[in-house]
Amino acid sequence: MKKIYSVEEYIEEHENFGEALTLLRSIITSTEVGETVKWSAPVYTVNGKNVLGLGAFKNHFGIWFFNGVFLKDQHNLLVNAQENKTKALRQMRFKSIDDIDKNIVLSYVKEAIENQKLGKEIKPDRKKKETVIPVELKSVLDANTELNLAFNNLSPYKQREYCEYIQTAKREATKQTRLEKITPMIIQGVGLHDKYKNC
Prior knowledge:
Blueprint: H1 7-13, H2 18-28, E1 34-38, E2 41-46, E3 49-56, E4 61-65, E5 78-79, E6 90-94, H3 102-117, H4 135-143, H5 145-153, H6 156-167, H7 172-188, H8 194-197
Antiparallel strand pairs: 1-2, 2-3, 3-4, 4-6, 5-6
Helix pairs in contact: 4-5, 5-7, 6-7
Protein name: YdhG-like domain-containing protein
Pfam families: DUF1801 (PF08818), OmdA (PF13376)
Domain YdhG-like: 19-113
């Protein structure tokens, strides 16, 4: 798919739905949203936050509501494009320009804007990554109090870097060589790749 730089260009690319997309665009832009292009498609924002977008496909076109899960959907027009995967995103799909009721579309758009202003959004799951200490590193840490203390003072990210470094060694000899290399680094409180980060 070619990169799109403007809404006009997007509409031209989908000329079979061009008139309908232009109509939806005029309804959306009659509100206070800002218009931009993201992911090569028209996106509409409020205070820099994505509220909705226009989309055209082979057999249908419509509006994406980024936090559509919060819309009342009194007319039962919204679909979840990927059941059990998509948490917040909802689509309002149309097959032809005749399916568009301007007033209904506008009411959904206004509600989506209001919801955004109220801060209604599903935050992405930021699951805490667990640090799994490989057996070889654990035995070295258990045998050396200073090293153990230094390791526990490292950030979880740096701890994971060291754990992965040992885990990814295939041969036992390589694991031992790596352990010898990282011991002084851990005691100094530096991360495995710190010297590259400051370049």
